[in-house]
Predict the structure.
Amino acid sequence: VVLTGAFMLCYVIFGGMLATTWVQIIKAVLLMAGILVMSLFVLERVGFNPIELFNRAEDNTTAESTFSLAPGTFLSSPIDTVSLGLALVLGTAGLPHILMRFFTVPNARAARGSVVWAMFLIGGFYLLTTFIGFGARAVMGEAGVEAAGTGGNLAAPNLALELGGGEGTFGGDLFLAVIAGVAFATILAVVAGLVLSASGAVAHDIWSSIIRKGKDSEKEEVVVAKIAAASIGVIAILIAVIGGEGLNVSFMVGLAFAIAASANFPALVLALTWRRFNTMGAVWGVLLGVTSAIGLIIVSPKVWPGADSDTGSPLGWTLSNPGIISIPLGFLGCILGTLLSSERGTDRSFHELYVRSETGLGSEKSEKALSPH
């Protein structure tokens, strides 16, 4: 964790957007290639028959195991399942490190094209994870549960070891090394993008716009961004080392998506659909969404008293993912902030934004600004 965090900070502080972009491009290629090869290896073990994959996964399960294709083994409450689904679907549209990628394309047409590519790549990746998850159980059986570790995060590396020939073989060690390298590149790229997005917000939105009132220089803003990146990176590393042990990575990803869906998604949707929506509404929505999401995560049974506790949250809160509560609160904050604010005169800007979002007209200035000429 510390080593990955150190590499990430070097990329962000010294490389900036360019270095982060390149590591994300390389990560995308390696990740898709790695999961595709693993999926093909898994399917080869079952004669390229997905039904046989599920049958073997079930056959390799003991009666005491919680493995089942029926719902309720990962999240026991239907409300929790719906909450996680809302967070994953709506949070994708509000992830800050994804939204900032629109600043790296020259015009609206290129932005739409990048979204289409991202949709197919992300959707394909999620589909292929089905073969990895069930493949781990089908190939390794109950032994894979112990090998996967407390949080279940080592299932894919151990599956790669088994598919390559097993422990102690050249093929197994080689395939494990390749998948471990892909995982390292993925973590590095994603975290670098998040830190870059956060440090940019601190430098531009808080330091430059609020504290310095637009009177700072470009050099000063860059220095503040680097300091913010280092601070955010150190805090993230400490949180991961202290509180991340024993938690499943996919579960924590769902929490991050819930925060994005609660803080950013309501403001984005209302900015495009509600002509009266204003700055105060956006501020209220973001603040209420992010504070409610983080607060509900803190009092959730997985965090307080902890993942290993059987007593549940001391406050009686049972939801593991806060999305079903915090997302509506984000919308409520946007609506209340807009209605209680005296800010007016946004009709014209709404129409301009609406036409630009549908047609791309008005993006010529952005294209010229990003052009090397």
Notes: Residues 1-60+75-243 form one domain.
